[in-house]
Design brief:
This protein is an alpha+beta fold and 365 residues long. It contains ten helices and twelve strands. α4 packs parallel to α6.
Length: 365
Amino acid sequence: METIIDFINQKFDDPFLGRLALDSYSSDKIFKTINKLDKIDVNFLVRKNKIDFVEDASIFSCRILFSQGFKKDSNYILDNVLNTTPSYYWALEALRLKHSYSFKIKKWETILNKIDKLIDNHSNEFEDFSHTNPYFSGLPLSITPKIAKRIINGYRKLIRKNNNSPNIIPDYRLFIPSLTLLAQNEKYTLFLSRGGFFILLPRYFIFVPELFVNFKNEFKIYNSNEISSNQIINKFNLKNTSCLFSNFIKTYKGYDIIQFFDFYLAVKLTTRSFTVLNDNPFENRDSFYSDNLNDLTKIIDLKREFIYEGSSINNDKIQITNNFLNTKSKLVFEKNKFVLKNQTESIKSISSLNTIISYFNKIIF
């Protein structure tokens, strides 16, 4: 054997499975179709990745080694990717695998700083960048430098919050902006990501990956190589649907209102550079969301009149909606505060950031 491709051709009887194995987002079940690796195989993979470094071959090697129990060698190759690659995309992929394989990461800040530098050094001449539309690009998987910065900043805040050892970080593939809304019902919404997986979210979630760590047990990811969308739709009794990814609606009393799938997001105008692709809408911003445009404008009216202008509101109690974010709970402005009433189900924090909601069972604002 002279190359990784030679190795793949030798180990996989089916050429299609061999090609699929090089796709870093393919299912690990592929590696169960080959015989056990011997020491010669392991030494070849480790040596080849050191002297003839190519990122996708390295990721393939670490995955096949991990799947067959050679964890130390797998981790060694991932470290080599992080230390060698000039691509922030492949660095993010190596970091994702280290975290998902539960390999110990001693120097989170050092790794994130390195990826940060790779983003800063990224040339606009790379084929993954478009001058005409910097918020969406062809390769690699639309992770533009601005989106990569958002990912790294989110990771950095999490590790500092959790004393340099986060239990969970959002999978960077969740930030890939090519999302398709497939189906939903009153409880769930199903998305397809260009990253090769389906995402099942509770119906009241807005798609902001930084928030998912607050309720890691309440959303599900399915590998599209292992299950079809119809199987998920049937399992959860969903109905097929479609919707625009994002659409600017209007500026209203100092807020930009943006349709984000079937939610309406209000962001106070602090900068005109905000987009739902590049920015966490709840980071250092006065922002909130609803599934009803009229409800959203009512909330803006109340916030502006009472909180920003200091006016007194004549009505002691103003009911905004009977079914806020499809939770079967009333949102009421009562005694100068927003309160949720008649909660019928236990719902965890939507966000610890500047959203309209802090906790569904507590007074908000």
